Structures are given as C-alpha cells and as structure tokens.
Amino acid sequence: MADTTHTASFNRARSADESPVKRFFRATEIDTRLLGMVGAMLIIWIGFHFLSGGLFLTSRNLWNLSVQTASIAVMATGMVLVIVTRNIDLSVGSILGFVGMIMGVLQAELLPQLLGFNHPATWIITLFAGLLLGAAIGALHGVIIAFLNVPSFIVTLGGLLVWRGATWFVTSGRTVAPMDSTFRLMGGGTEGSIGATASWIVGLIACIAIVASIIHSRRQRKRFGFPRRPVWAEYFLSAVGCALVLGAVAIANNYGWPVNIARKYADANGIAWPEGGLFIAHGIAIPVLIAIAIGIIMTFISTRLRFGRYVFALGGNPEAAELAGIKTRWVTVRIFALMGMLCAIAAAISTARLNAATNAQGELDELYTIAAAVIGGTSLAGGMGTIAGAMLGALVMQSLQSGMVLLGIDSPLQRIVVGMVLVTAVWLDTVYRARAK
Amino acid sequence: MTEQRTPLVEMRNISISFGGIHAVDNASVDLYPGEVVALLGHNGAGKSTLIKILSGAYRRDAGEILINGEPAEIGNPRDAKKYGIETIYQTLAVADNVDAAANLYLGRELRTPWGTLDDVAMEAKAREVMGRLNPNFQRFKEPVKALSGGQRQSVAIARAILFNARILIMDEPTAALGPQETAQVGELIKQLKREGIGIFLISHDIHDVFDLADRVSVMKNGQVVGHARTEDVTKDEVLGMIIMGKVPAKAIPGPGAMQMA
Hints:
The structure holds 2 protein chains of 2 kinds.
Chain A: H1 2-16, H2 20-28, H3 32-51, H4 59-84, H5 92-115, H6 122-147, H7 152-171, H8 195-223, H9 231-254, H10 259-268, H11 286-304, H12 306-316, H13 318-323, H14 328-354, H15 365-375, H16 387-406, H17 411-436
Helix pairs in contact in A: 3-16, 4-9, 4-11, 4-14, 4-15, 4-16, 5-6, 5-7, 5-14, 6-7, 6-14, 8-9, 11-12, 12-14, 15-16
Chain B: E1 9-18, E2 21-31, E3 36-40, H1 47-54, E4 62-67, E5 70-71, H2 77-82, E6 85-88, H3 100-104, H4 119-133, H5 149-162, E7 167-171, H6 179-194, E8 198-203, H7 206-209, E9 215-220, E10 223-229, H8 235-244, E11 252-253
Parallel strand pairs in B: 3-8, 3-9, 6-7, 7-8
Antiparallel strand pairs in B: 1-2, 1-4, 4-5, 9-10, 10-11
Helix pairs in contact in B: 4-5
C-alpha cells in the first residue's frame, strides 16, 4: 500500500509541471502514436472528400471502404506476429490465391456432385478445408524456416512463386464460378449484411463490452493496489469508445439497398412500393464483422495468451527467449501456420466477394499486407507492433486507394502514390521513435 | 573445507569442441551448497563455454555432470531449470521489449484458470520480489529496454531467485554496472549464499570477484589451470595462474597447469 501512495504522489509531482495536453494523455493512457495515425487518416478522408466534391464521406463509400479493407485487415493481423519475430511473409497473396482456388473448386464442382447443389453444409466444409489447407501451407513454411534455418524471406519468396504456380494447375488457369450462395454471404453485398436491427444489437453489445472491460481492469488494478486512471478519464474513454461504435453502426445503417434490389425484394415479399422508394438498410457487412472478430481474437492471442507473450519476447531478444526455455522453433512454426489460416479466411472473403475464384486472386496482396502492418506501427526490427495498429494501417491504405479511384486517378499513378506514402509513413515513424527515446 | 559433503554440482572431465577447436578440454569443477566459486580466465579461456554446458545452452562432447551426486542429463535450458540451475548471462539476457514482470516469468508464466496470462498477479509478485531486491525500482510498466544496466541486472537476478534457484550461475554479473550497483550485487550474493545457494561467478577480472568468492578455479586455453581457496592465495598468485598458468604451492593443479621444467 505504501508503494501505491508513493507512486501516486510521484505521478502527481511529475504532472504538476506538465502541460494540460500531456497530463490528459497520461491520465487516459491513450497511445499517442495510434492517435496520430487516426489523425492522418481523418486528414486523408477529409482531403478526398473535398477533392471528390463530397463523394468520400458518404455512408455508401464508407461502407464499401469497410468491406474492401476486410481481407487485407485479416491478413495484416497475422503479419504483425510474423514481423514482430523479425520474419517476413511474402507468400500471403499466393496462399490466398491457392486456397481460394481450392475452396472455389470444392464448393462449385466437387461438393455439389457429392451433396447436391446448394447443400447447406457446403460452405462450412469448404471453409474448414480452406483453413486446414492454409494452416498446413503456413506450417510447412514455418518448419522450413525454423528447423532447416532457411531465412523466411527466401522461404516465402519461394512460396510466392510456388503457390501462384500451383493455383494455375488446379484448373489450368480457368476461373471458377459461381460460389455457393451461403458461402457468398462472407463477401458482403446486400445479402451479406446483417441489417439495421442486428447492427444496433451488435453495437450495443460492443458498448457493453467496452464499459465492462474498463470496469474490470479498474477493479483488477484496485485489487492489487496499482495506480489507477482518474475517474473522469475512465468516463471519457467509455464515452468515446461507445460513440465511435454507435457512430459506425449509424453510418452502416444509413446506407440503403440499391433501388432495383429493393424493388425485387418488395415484389417478392408482396410489399407495396412506396412513394419515394423503399429504404432497407445494409447494416454492418459480414466480412467486416469477420475482420473485427479476427482482430479481437488476434489481440487476445497476442496480449493475453502465453503464445503471444513468447512471440514478443522472441522478437525482442531471440537469445534471451531461447535461454528462458521457450521452444522458439515451435513458436515460429505456429506463427506461420496461424498466418496461413488467416490467408484462408481472407481467401474466403475475397472469393465470396468476387463470387469467383480466379488465377490472379490476391496478387500484390502480400505487399499491401506488409505495408498495412508497417504503417500500423509494426517495427521491422522486431519486437514491436499491435493488431489494432495494423488493422488501422489496412484502413489507411484502402482509404488512399479507393479515394484515388473516386478521383479517377489512373492505376499506375495510384501505385506511385501508395509507394511514396509507405516510405514517408515509415520515415515519420522512425523520427517519432527516435524522439520518444 | 567441505570436501566430505556431496557437492551440489560436479562437472567431471568435460570437453566440447567447435569445428576442431577444443573450447573446453577435459575440465572438472565443483560447487558446494552456500559456496561461491569464481571461475576465472582470459576472454576465450573457455569459462563461459564450460558454464553454458551446465546451463543447457551447449551440449557437451564428453564428460559427466553430477547434481547432488546424481548423474544429470542436461540437454537444453529447460532441463537445467528442472535441476534448479538458473543463469544470469553476460549479455543481460532479458527480452528488451516486454516489461519487468513479463521478463521475470518468461517461459513460466502464471495463468488464470481460463489459461490466459495472469498479468496482474505476475506484476504483484514482481513488485514484491523487486521491492526486496531493489526498493527504488518503480518502472514496472515500461519495457526493460528503457531501464538502466543495473535495473536490468536486478530484473535478471530477481528472475533467478523467483524460481528458488539452488545453483546460480552469474556470467560477468557486474561488468555492465556502476560502482554502487556493483556493491548492491555483492550484497545480494552474500544474502543468497546465506540461503544455501551455490553460486558460480564467472569473470575475466579478478578484482570483481576475489572478495566475494570462497574458491577460485582458473581456466586457460580451454583447460583448468588449478583450484584454490581464496584465503590460501593472493590476488597476484591468481593472476599468475590466469596469465601464465603457474600454480602456487597451496593450490591444486589441473590438467592445464604449466609444466615445470
């Protein structure tokens, strides 16, 4: 107890000669780096909004943005763990392509023969097969990296070529379509969204979870006599968290179905077509829910489980981790297997969204995934990175891209801009970290 | 001396070579409970390599290790920990990017009934242990990278005593420290000794360890020059052993002793 009072008075003494802004950040324990990234993203959004004549910050565009981000965001969460351990995975785009193609063939050609067309189990069998395959490919990479001591750069560069080539061989380059109707829900669209009521329910559950976790962590700190945040800071964080969640739900619910689909729906269900059109909200898209769920699970894995602790310790000092008795090689294998599974989930989202499995699916995705993780604050030197940062990084990358599409910028120029932004972002981050020391 | 008791550790005729070079050649050392043995020698004399065999980082080519008189099979750091052997490395082997509590429990995390990390309990215990060791230590939430050399060293030592080490290996424990911190580590060693823990101190600088040690074992070119009780020899005589391999009268010569003409 003496310890607590000491720390408290120590903090108070320190905060007396601090500016109000600094005091605010200390009290709320907000990560200023993450906040900086949110700020940068808002600038990008507002910039595009004005340049495009008010097209960017519309519920329709933001909803699409969220769906487009999902696949890269899912893979970026795994890339964080890979990069934290001083590895790299260049093969994620090709794994996505290969697993996507296998899942496509499975649900469009093999399973209908066995189970019949549109069988309700098709999507789940397909997804499980994809997850297993992704994990197996990732584990294979991991074993070569950890036990045969081939650098991950080389192993996954090989994987990039091998799995892209293998994708071609599955169907000799033919595109497979269409996907199973249930499977397709994972890709979003009018069908693949949960509608207004369910979205509000999800939003409310999220708000309850935010408040509960803040209360829980405060209780835990109190129980062991650790310094706590001021009460106003707890209220502030709860309020901001809930406002963000409910705001996002409101935006998703503000985007209605396209007129012709709504009309079809009205006809099919015998609803009279009202004057001025029928408004049916999309709500949150299923791929976005998947991505958020993955983000929560991966954050849990990386911060609350032993495995996550080992990943970070391994990245900070591989020798120390080994000497502490951690089975570092197996940790590496598990990281790559996990990455493979996330590629499979991303493959499900993107094939479902396209309603086809193509030969070129996921090309260059490895670079966007790495860029998202790095922009999101994952250090290539190892040991540092957060899941939330990487997902936000994916959103920043996608915002840039779809903003440029809105402005009608040619794709070669888009690539130039994305490339320059990546380099600039990492440079700024280096400057920030040097100052923070 | 305590020769009649069973040694805590006995390493007999240990050899290991890397690519044809005999890093350690037929070396034997022992350690009794509550005793501090300094392992001295130049850089490259083989002392760190010898001790890494005991801590499980290297696998010996020949020889045997007895713990409490029983042959022990030590193939990796986890095996060593099972025998109560804890090592504090020269290179300050802490994971830089996680906090003190995470380092203390690295590899042996406390977990809640649901299998998740019990960070709060680990931090509470870390505060308790660190409070005993270094009462000024307050920076529990920061990554170890941000700490001073002495603070990092106290984290490494706390890590060892947290798990009730019976045999403690300290490789250049004070090399990275200032004078005050060195004195602190000295105090700590005396305290651990009273608790019956056997300690190997490894150093290339005799002044660091002479006053703390009960015995010295000197190595040169991978071989043991000799063993001596510190009360029987002077610092200069030990220096002679380190530099020339010359064994004074009251010391027990080993295979690496200079052959007298």
